[in-house]
Design a protein that fits this description.
11 strands, about 35% helix, elongated, disordered N terminus
Length: about 220
């Protein structure tokens, strides 16, 4: 129904004493609902923001199965995302942490430099599984996106959730073979989008209009 037709019906039905208001109101509500849903959809797409992890204190644990597990263990060490970090393990070595690093198509990434961490001990007959656990991430995580890269190749396994974070495993021989002089692992992940409050409000309002229409129908 175009604008001219709408005006004609209003005049005609007022003259005949018919209930034109309900018909025009229904048409108007349909337009309002369409507008609200379209605006909410746009906000969900563009307004789902990710938190900036820079400045966030994160907790790291890095453990290796096997006879050197206790000697090399790193448990619940805190460092600040966005600043260089170092974790010393007495009588073993040092783990260097670089964040953030750029990995195409991922929201967040951290490089764990194992050059000074005596990683050659975890090769040959002593090759084993390493488990990295990151906790304290102040935003939802898309677990399906978690990757552990060596030279751009995903080598991670066993991804699982942790307290406000996740854990991921890798094979030590694979990591060492990737660069025996300077072994490292880059862990990357995506954040789960959080709908903007305005989008949720618009969806709620559209739902209220729809409910009102159903009651009047």
């Amino acid at each position: 129904m175009n604008a001219t037709q709408a005006m004609f019906i209003i005049v005609k039905q007022r003259r005949n004493g018919t209930t034109v208001v309900s018909k025009i109101t229904k048409t108007r509500e349909e337009r309002i609902m369409k507008t609200l849903y379209a605006a909410a959809a746009a906000m969900l797409i563009t307004g789902a923001a990710h938190a900036d992890l820079t400045g966030t204190d994160l907790s790291i644990s890095l453990n290796h199965a096997g006879p050197f597990g206790a000697l090399s263990a790193i448990n619940n060490q805190t460092w600040n995302y966005g600043t260089p970090g170092m974790v010393m393990v007495p009588n073993w070595g040092m783990l260097s942490i670089v964040s953030p690093v750029a990995v195409a198509s991922y929201d967040n990434a951290i490089t764990f430099d194992l050059t000074a961490f005596a990683y050659g001990a975890f090769t040959g007959g002593f090759a084993t599984t390493a488990t990295l656990k990151l906790e304290g991430i102040d935003e939802p995580i898309d677990l399906s996106s978690v990757r552990a890269f060596v030279n751009g190749v995903h080598v991670g396994t066993g991804v699982a959730s942790a307290t406000n974070g996740f854990k991921v495993d890798w094979n030590t021989q694979t990591v060492f073979d990737g660069n025996p002089i300077a072994p490292s692992v880059t862990v990357a992940w995506d954040s789960s989008p959080v709908p903007a409050p305005g989008a949720l409000a618009l969806l709620g309002l559209a739902g209220a209009v729809a409910s009102r229409r159903r009651r009047r129908a």
